[in-house]
Target: Translation initiation inhibitor
Amino acid sequence: MKYQHHSFNEKEVEVQIASFSNGNEVSEYHIILQGTQPTLTYKEQLNNLTDVYNSLLTGELKGASALFKRYFLSDAANQEEMLLAMATEYSDCALSIVEQSPLNGTKIALWVYLQTDVQSRALPNGLFEAVHGNYRHFWGGSAFNRAANSEYQTRLLLNDYVMQLMEQGCTLADHCIRTWFFVQNVDVNYAGVVKARNEVFVTQNLTEHTHYIASTGIGGRHADPKVTVQMDTYAVDGISAAQVQYLYAPTHLNPTYEYGVSFERGTCVKYGDRRQVFISGTASINNKGEVVHPGDIRLQTHRMWENVEVLLQEAECTFDDLAQMIVYLRDTADYQIVKQLFDERFPQIPKVILLAPVCRPGWLIEMECIATKADRNEAFANY
Model:
């Protein structure tokens, strides 16, 4: 993985880039853009972020196409409308918008995933398709509805997604690699998400005896207060069961079903020329499902890293293969400590630290990440 950092001082924007290239095959990029001047208005910050991103597309990242964007906002109710007006003008990929305040004090941050040599299009059913080689990749962003409560909203989201996949000849169990659930008032509403997901998964042959899906369930809200749950998704058509490895790290983590939830700790997808690893939201937990180091943000951060490292090792990867990290904090007062810890250990890896309570109050911090590593699997088609 190659890392670059740029400071666009005239725009008060910093850019972190991770790039993976494997010769003549598809290259991929993860970029995180974040403002550095909290005193600017939201409009100024949004315009500056957009200007810098567009300059990257015509310069350093020329030839790469965006497949997925996620905007992190500090006040979605007052910011989403302006963002959507601008995003519609540049609607080139799947779009996710969530209120999870950037903890450096600015109002907006952006994560973008891009690839070269890819054919992409928006599908009529709301998914975004990217095609290269033998594979079709489907990204979904900010799916939501206004059903009565978090349970019904989650049930409807998943049932609709099952139908979207069926229209493409896919199933939830065989093709979905990653989900994200953003839950307003997660301490209250997460239980409904868990209940609905567990029940829908059973109907899709996703059980403790088969497998689940890598996922993050985290605090985050939509601009509309009636939306208590929104969902992002990623699925791949063309993969076989032999290409997918589920990560467990039993020395450090327990199966999620033991405490009533249904997701995989991580998933590795192996292609002919590379492997991609999706690590779910991971916190300071042990292999009995217990919170480790209650109340201590430093020790929780170190245990979280340890858990993630063991998951990566199971996929024959290390932190050096990471393309991005998203870090969630429950308490804004922990930001300076956590930023210092991450900057000291991972100065190069693109990251953003956000205000987003984890699904269990005792967890002060959680992180997720994506890794890509060169590989040779002659049994599988190249990416």
